[in-house]
Amino acid sequence: MKDLNAFSLEGKIALVTGASYGIGFAIADAMAKAGATIVFNDIKQELVDKGIAAYEEAGIKAHGYVCNVCDEDAVNAMVAQIEKEVGVIDILVNNAGIIKRIPMIEMSAADFRQVIDVDLNAPFIVAKAVIPSMIKKGGGKIINICSMMSEFGRETVSAYAAAKGGLKMLTRNIASEYGEYNIQCNGIGPGYIATPQTAPLREVQPDGSRHPFDQFIIAKTPAGRWGEAEDLGGPAVFLASEASNFVNGLILYVDGGIHAYIGKQPS
Ligand code: NAP
Ligand code: GCO
Questions:
Q1: In degrees to the nearest 10, what's the CA dihedral of 134, 135, 140, 141?
Q2: Mutate to test the pocket of ligand 2, among 198, 214, 220, 232 (most ligand atoms within 8 A of CB)
């Protein structure tokens, strides 16, 4: 590495899907601070408008598009519009995602399919849409937002774990198939992060105590806390920058140490 400019994203265009708020917003904010031009989408115009306002408040002039990432025609049209209006996408962050917490035998096949559609099929669709231009441009970066559930199961999240496990392998396969075109495809596996998606797991109980799952995660995390979306910004900038040009097919877990820890022993 010649100098710290290897971590710069100056002159790069980053598309972060589902980034009006939450983890996607935090990653886009970090990439903007590293010099990237931010493009994001969300499923509703009102959320895109809110996102643009939030980026403006953070001093970022972001480009927002309404697009359901599960709709291949809409994704292809959005990518073509971005290339026309902003430029070729150098960095793709497949962040958009949903979860449904339902015991497997009570989950409908439709619910299962919807989670797979957003969390696995959509990253395939969006990556497929951006790779041809990355190849023409001489390379690119793809970052898929995986999960602890890319490695572990737990009750009620069968569809999500299946999708995120598949996303881990899709990440490795894109790395394998397109590495020769100077495209690096890696994953970020966040631990438990305090966002709207996990809000139900952190609700304060009627007696004022912490949610049982909240206590469980605190005991399973050496850092002794939930992650903040901002904790993911640095790892994302690294994987989006030239500093990681020989990192390919990696799932980088940003989990406060959950992977390394059996859990707090009884006192
Ligand atoms: P979040 O707060 O629920 O935000 C998800 C974002 O994705 C929202 O902006 C949502 O837009 C958007 N989205 C959902 N479906 C979409 C679709 N079909 N098309 C376009 N946008 C869509 O979730 P988060 O906690 O920030 O999580 C972001 C990513 O990190 C997800 O992939 C999640 O699985 C993953 N992750 C989260 C955690 C965690 O602890 N929070 C940990 C590991 C991994 P709408 O509001 O319009 O639905
Ligand atoms: C859950 C949580 C987790 C987190 C994340 C952990 O219900 O277990 O929502 O799945 O979202 O994926 O890495």
A1: 90
A2: 198
